[in-house]
Specification:
This protein is an alpha/beta fold. The protein has a single domain, classed as Alpha-Beta Barrel (TIM Barrel), CATH 3.20.20. The protein has an 8-stranded parallel barrel, surrounded by 6 helices. The two termini are 30 Å apart. It binds ligand 3NM. The site of ligand 3NM has 18 residues, from helix 8.
Length: 209
């Protein structure tokens, strides 16, 4: 069944390195039961076989929940598991090359300053990730923190939806939605929380805006 049409909200990212030592599949289940509107797999370590196995497990869960599933970095993996989208970093495939492989699937690009956001949009990104909005210790070697004012500037200029990312908490999510973000993404504040579902719920815009 196709995913439900969604217009924004909590963009969950599950990274097995940030699940508080728990199974990422169980954490993903909790994230979905907390109403995440999108679920992205991020997995920077481990073997390809482990990555594929986890991607399939999350693909099944998201299909049952009718939530779009996005794979980070890897076009081959996105195609293999029939993901709804691919999220690209600045050093990954270009949007044009990813488009050749993925056709109409959603392509997101991580950007870290207004110029990168403009370039990604011109290149045909369907969605722009922008951050880190606040300090984060989840990402190794994060780019400089951009802050809410620059997030608002990027949201005003963009004609595609913007995902705010980096150091977001439920309280800060409210500010990010107010700054114009369509989506708010978080890793540690949700997947490392004691009550994952409750934390996911607290990121929803109807709670937060
Ligand atoms: N990308 P947390 S910041 C994966 O700036 C990622 O593009 C970022 O984790 C960017 O919610 C980030 O735990 C880490 O801060 C987000």
């Amino acid at each position: 069944m196709d995913p439900k049409p969604v217009e924004g909200g909590f963009y969950a990212i599950v990274d097995p390195a940030h699940c508080g030592g728990r199974s990422p599949v169980e954490v993903a289940q909790q994230v979905l039961s907390g109403g995440a509107a999108v679920l992205q797999l991020r997995m920077k370590t481990g073997s390809d076989r482990e990555r594929v196995a986890l991607a399939w497990a999350l693909r099944e869960l998201t299909r049952t929940a009718r939530v779009p599933f996005v794979v980070n970095d890897r076009a081959d993996l996105a195609l293999l598991v029939d993901a709804d989208g691919l999220h690209l970093g600045q050093d990954d495939l270009s949007v044009a090359d990813a488009r050749r492989l993925l056709g109409a699937r959603q392509l997101g690009v991580s950007t870290h300053d207004p110029e990168q956001a403009r370039v990604a949009e011109r290149a045909g990104a369907d969605l722009i990730g922008f951050g880190p909005v606040f300090d984060t210790s989840t990402k190794e070697r994060p780019d400089p923190t951009v802050g809410l004012a620059t997030l608002a500037e990027v949201c005003r200029a963009a004609r595609v939806p913007v995902v705010a990312i980096g150091g977001l908490t439920p309280e800060r999510a409210r500010e990010a939605y107010r700054a114009g973000a369509t989506w708010v993404a978080a890793i540690s504040a949700v997947t490392a929380a004691d009550d994952v579902a409750a934390s996911a719920r607290a990121f929803a815009p109807e709670v937060g805006s």
